[in-house]
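Example record for the data management plan.
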Amino acid sequence: MKLAIVYDSNCGLCARVKEWILQQAPLVSIEFVAGGSHEARTRFPGLADGELAVVSDTGEVWLGNHAWIVCLWALRDYRDFAFRLTNPVLQALARQAFAVVSANRLAISRRFGLQPSDRELEARLRDVYVPRCQSGSE
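Corresponding structural encoding:
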């Protein structure tokens, strides 16, 4: 089995989680595809930009917290934990935790000093108020 993890490459937290996954021992083949990229739009045209998605080579698709559980399932040291998270009670908690982290991922990236992407940095700089110089005499 081969999994494609479609992630937000413009998010510092998402990029750090990608690096963390790459440091783990996989049980299946894993590749990463930057969400919103030409490759992602071509290979997975129905996926929304910015949402974590995992797509198997058999065509199965997992989104959001289900995608995160599949990411853990794909790793040797976390497969048992992934199975535990499929318990209805724990799955509800995992869904809530994923929703909180997902909604605040840019703030989390800033808080932990994770490198912003050029696009995120540009957006931040556009929000900076720059006062205009007064020309002429008063």
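Summary line stored alongside the record: The longest helix spans residues 88-103.
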